[in-house]
Fold:
Amino acid sequence: MNIMIKRTSKVKMILLVLTSLLLISCKNDDDAHDHSNISTITITPKEVPTRGVSGYVLRPAQQLELIAVAENRDNTTQDITKHVTWHSTVPEVAKMNGSSVVGVDIGETDISARYNGIESSDSIHIKVAYGKIKNLRITPAITSISKMLPVQLKLTGIFRDHTTANISTRRWSSSNEDVASVSITGLVTPKKVGETTITARKGRKKATAKIIVTDAKLEKITLIPLNASEVTKDGVIIAPVGVKTRLTAMGIFSDHTTINFDPSKVIWKSEDEQIATVSNQGEITPKKRGKVNITVTKDGISETSKLEVTYAKIEKIIIEDDGGIETPAGREVKIPVSGIFTDGRKANMLLAQITVYPIYMGRVRYDYDVPIFTPSPFTTGKAIITARLAGMGDSLIATSTVTITPEVLERIVITPKKASVPLNGTIQLTAAGVFSDLADVPRYITNVAWDTTRYDIIALDNKGNVTPLKEGSADVIATKDSIQATATITVKPNK
Structure:
């Protein structure tokens, strides 16, 4: 008896653990939720920072992460943060970066969210403002520059809560205008060898920076690719057609100081613009396969980078009719996967690996490399389809949702399909339906409408009973849900 109790308890414990794991899996997999039942959407801050934010007041460059929660018609809730589209009424004040609102400039804005045509029931009011400044700082604080080269200074505010942010002021001044002047934006223009002190003021606070102007001359320029797809050991930049690459030019002076040039203050040139062009910001646009030199020039000093443009590559894959695929239970549907190349071209019918979640909702087969999804019989709901480009791992992935609706009637089978009956006889016809969830397996159906093309040859009731009236042939038509089938009845003389 004790052994039986122990075994029963052990089985209960195993079932409890498995149930808990299943619930946790369902809870964590937000993509498996049905979002069609949403009634309202509410947005709130995930966590109000204790530093730099008072209520919903942000400093420039500070951010606040938001969450979106949907309430369903059955009073359940779900986190749909990664599914909603965020909107800022004044993006010049605060913009959205994913689900975080980021302060841009002084002002006020409202943040809302939208999903499947449903707008959030409320919005979050964001104010971007400076806090109480404890101190100011100019960067760089001390700099040595050539008399041939301007330098841009930045003003940083240090607040009482120890946070920092870049701030603007028009109150810049130079202690020695003969050595260097400074604009209202903090741009220092050197004039002759010497020293000067640059001062920036904000309210009653001020900061200073020491500028040393030298007669150093530009000796060399180094080109640095910022976002190249690939750079060889020999320094050749590899870029597929359509993939832009940006270069930055760094100047090296005779006093060993360096500076990153404003890209618009140097001269850029491509030796063959049919292969690649370069903008006045140093952005390279590859156009066709080939090799080309990109050159930058400043004050008579030049530097060249070699660029090799390769064939365009697939940078994104999509499932056609994304989110709009619908099929009845049991009826197969194609899952066409297309690729978007870096040059904007589109490739159809890509060979992709298709997976389905939950797996019980259907299976995938391939017909000439085209994935075909077949929903499981008697199953309805939404299945998540994931496509991965063969040989690319998770670097190229696309998802879509297939809505599986209840079974539908595919065709009708009349028995017998052809029959001969004597003039004094009768015959009973029956109709069976073949449904999408059980292909080629007829089963009994009701509410069939019966009709004939020759009521002068046979009489026909609503049950499929045929009574001959005279010799000849007549077609009998069975109709249900706009599906029809035909049988032929031949009336012969009495035996």
The CA atoms of residues 240 and 311 lie 5 Å apart. The longest strand covers residues 63-72. The chain has one helix and 50 strands. Residues 1-33, 50-54 have pLDDT under 50 and may be disordered.
